[in-house]
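Please, structure for the following, as tokens.
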Amino acid sequence: MRALAFAVLLAVPVVAAAQAADTLTGRITDQAGQPVPVATVEIIELGRSVTTATDGTFRVALPPGRYTVVIRRAGFAPVVRGVTLSGAVVPPLDVALTPSPFQLEPVTVTATRSPVAADASPLPVAVLAGDQLRQARGVSLAHVLEALPGLRTLSTGAQIGKPVIRGLSGPRVLVLENGSRLEDYSWSDEDGPSVETGFVRRVEVIRGPASVLYGSDALGGVINVISEALPDAAGRPRFMRTGFTLSGASNNVEIGVAGRAEGARGTFGWRVAGVGRFAGPLHTPAGELDNTGFGSMNAEAAAGWRGQRGGLSFRVAHYGGEFKLLEANGPDTTGTEQGGPERKLGDERLQARGERVAGSWRLVAQGQFQRHSLIEVSDDTVPGGSGSLTESEAFNLLLQTASLDLLAHHGADALHGTLGVSTVGQWNDASGRIALVPDARVASAAAFAFEQLALADGRWSLLGGARVDARRLTADADTALGMGAQSRNATAWSGDVGVVWRPAADVAASANLGRAWRAPTLFELFANGPHLGEARYERGDATLVPESGRSVDVGVRVGGRRVRAELAAYHHRISNYIYIRPDTVFIDSLRVYQYAQAQAELLGAEASLEGEVLPGFTARARVDGVRGTNLSAHEPLPLVPPLRTGVTLVWRDALEVDVDTYARQTRPNPLDIQTAGYTLVHVSAGRAITLFGRPMRLDVAVRNLFNASYRSFLSRYKEFALDPGRNLIVRLSAGDVD
């Protein structure tokens, strides 16, 4: 809780302090000079926005400082402008928008920890927002993100998924919420990110190492889930609005209900929201998969104040539910199955964030306390021969984490960057009849600097940063795991240097060299027991050292009025790569698998092309693939996604057809189970309607339209079950809940 106190102490003066504000004015027009009304003008750093009047003009009071201004209007390409207010007379910001059929996200805040135009980042970034996010929302964040280039899902049914970025997953992919780390049991295949996608405004993904900004676990990439900004009264004395979403899915008879209320009065804004989802067993073309249903109840509440010099906000979130697991011996075909294993998940987070503008500096303190509980229960036969089942607790894991980030953003027209300090304290408690990991504590601290420099009127952008992390792990003795009390210290450094060159207004070429690291998990260090789900006995290695990775990324982005294209290629070399290998020893008829380390590399590329074929009709094509090799063992890395291609046809944002083709993995690891290639067709449609006098939106989608029988290479059920068949999804929303 101390982490949250720091954020409050920094921000208390924000609400009360007064400072003379400059007024930023401007006019938004089209290419013919005609005014564009109801365009959104957003000040990214402050989370404030205004809309243009009927004559295209806008006006907003801001304290002195450097800001990123984004202008958006449906049917036009968004525009990003940097403005500096210094107390002198501010020239008007007049912008002429260009028509565009594409849905573009022009700014990223994850790639540099401060807002930057997407085409100015040498780090490869993907964004999911708007209609694409609304149509994809579900209980699993990983499944929602799967359509982005370079991203896949390591799935345990349709309700649990772990994101895979360029062939890396689990503890090598870091998930953030509003810039704060989300901690979970990343070593467990059945514990995915605890994120309710119904509360999300946008998701930004860094495809590649980002430890220089976020520390350990950002070896393969970073996923930043960004919530909707709190409402602003925007000159009105007060207001309140409500919204809801009703949804249903046919495959597993899933029912979803979501509601939201929010409002503002003066400088104070607030929001409360809740989502409930309940589903039965999944169905494949071969029949029902027993014990694959779930139920989840998630909620959030947030409130904050905004002053001329900054703001202060608090957020409380809960993510939880019960998720049933298909047993490894396969689906029940006799109709006698009475139950099975079940994961009970509970995740609560308290977040606080304070900001203060001080001249050319913007100071930010953000703290978070997270309580993450994971319990697995299974059905055991009651002694005495009655044949009835009773629920017993296999294991009970509790992870509590407190984190604090202190950031100082500075900027001028050419040079801007961030100085930061981060600390994390973590407590792990384990109980239950199955010993998985010991009770342990982790303390870490880091300092970093990240700078960006624009040259030659913005044609060249240089980026560079460095970070040092110190980490201490203390583990208690555990007789069940056969280990004594011990502690481990680690120090690691990360770095990044990149360049962006714009030979023309719509062309950007980039190159980036980064170094990242990750610490071994408790399971990799101390595991010593059966893993029945994989039919093996696993042993950790307490001598494992942190992984370190070096990655080279190159890319080209071309944007035009009717055509857009992007090509990215990368080479990722990982030293001390942690993997599991079979031994010649057997314990209780189970083969022993030992964690070990090796040298590894991943090579891959992503390409996309989008164009307007006819007015209102656009087409997108994409392809991504990765090749992973264990250089020490001279064999492919396990669970590396196969080649994927896709084509999407869109008609006026009202009708969309997706065709995705997944190739057969031609380089499987010896432990992999091979699957055949397959093609899936998805269709979705949506339109605005009026119901009971209220504007609403109706969306309809059909996943796996032709009910194809297939097994995903990254499915944990692939050995004994098909993936889900056809699924009709209907969603009705009002009040812009989605």
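The first strand starts at residue 22 and ends at 29. Residues 2-16 form the longest helix (15 residues).
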